[in-house]
Amino acid sequence: MTDQQSSKNMKNLNFATRLLHFGSEIDRTTGASSVPIYQASTFHHEDIFNPPQYDYSRSGNPTRQALEDYIALLEGGVRGFAYSSGMAAISSTFMMLSAGDHMIVTEDVYGGTYRLLTSILSRLGIESTFVDMTDLEQVKNALKSNTKAVYMETPSNPTLKITDVAAVTYWAKEHNLITMLDNTFMTPYYQRPIELGVDIILHSATKFLSGHSDVLAGLAVARTDDIANQLKQLQNGLGTVLGPQDSWLLIRGMKTLEARMKQSEISAGKLATWLSERKDITNVFYPGLSDHPGREIHEKQSTGYGAIVSFDVGSGERAKKVLNKVQLPLVAVSLGAVESILSYPAMMSHAAMPLEVRSERGITDGLLRFSVGLEHIDDLLNDLEQALQED
């Protein structure tokens, strides 16, 4: 069987099977049941006139290549790329743009992306307009003569707003715009935007894909060969690559993605319902709730609701009390791990946003973001109950 036939057959397998049988799960040289870690910076040329596939690990490494092929298979793209962090993946991809170009961006985007756009790329002459992408007309009205790209985050971080991916992508293609989407929250288990025509999928693989709070990594997947060639040139030229050890750890973590996401989603749904029934909670954000304004659109483009629940406890003072009283979740930056993580966007993920900008986007001082892990849900609810009690 040829590699092309093997790849085609793998695409026909169910997702859970593809997580374990992705083409590099068995080392062809030794039969080892794990991708080898090629801890090498450079590679010998046996014949100077016929260079080997790999010559220098910035340009390519067998362990990283296995990971890159893995994520491309899961997302349904032509080629994947692994980076030293989620922001390295995003910043490298944004380098497809040039001075004078403009992009349209989800307004309540991750704080690190906001910081990159407003304080770094702006100095390079790359413009950004932030819009509420739940409203397609706002996206359309943001179009300029120099617009080159649309950047989506759905569900958004941290208010979990939903963008109609198919509608935005269809409109973007009419105007020859590159479409990019951060798929960190949903992962390819729940959401595969390339199937809706999105050009580039991005991940902070540190989160759900890794799943164990022990890897810093980013991934990108290209829909077409032309885009893949551009991303490869940028990855190699900027040197924002993921090392072989972390590539191996990420491969190991991704094998249990479906099992982890399934269980965490069940608990997240129970947490969201429990919070929505409390009178002392101002707002609950979760696509699985019946009153979530974007639920219908989300269900058209995703097969599940994910493991992130955001909720507003009413004030910054109360939020800080809750953070100091919980005993089970990590109080930390990040999300998507086997252990639950409770974050405070105003002082953590979105601290780079000025107060007035956060307020405009619904990121209040009382907002908390709960990444539900694999603990028993009853224990998490009991812990949150005692943390919410007023002294």
UniProtKB/TrEMBL annotation:
Q: Which class of enzymes does this protein belong to?
A: lyase
Name this polypeptide is given: cysteine-S-conjugate beta-lyase
Listed cofactors: pyridoxal 5'-phosphate
Task: Report the domain of life of the source organism.
Answer: Bacteria
Which GO BP terms sit in this record? methionine biosynthetic process; transsulfuration
Post-translational modification N6-(pyridoxal phosphate)lysine, affected residues: K207
List cellular component terms (GO): cytoplasm
Q: Does the keyword Transmembrane helix apply?
A: no
GO terms assigned for molecular function: cysteine-S-conjugate beta-lyase activity; pyridoxal phosphate binding
- Pfam families reported in the protein's UniProt record: Cys_Met_Meta_PP (PF01053)
Q: Any idea which UniProt keywords this protein has?
A: Amino-acid biosynthesis, Lyase, Methionine biosynthesis, Pyridoxal phosphate
Q: What is its EC number?
A: 4.4.1.13
Q: Which family does it belong to?
A: Belongs to the trans-sulfuration enzymes family.
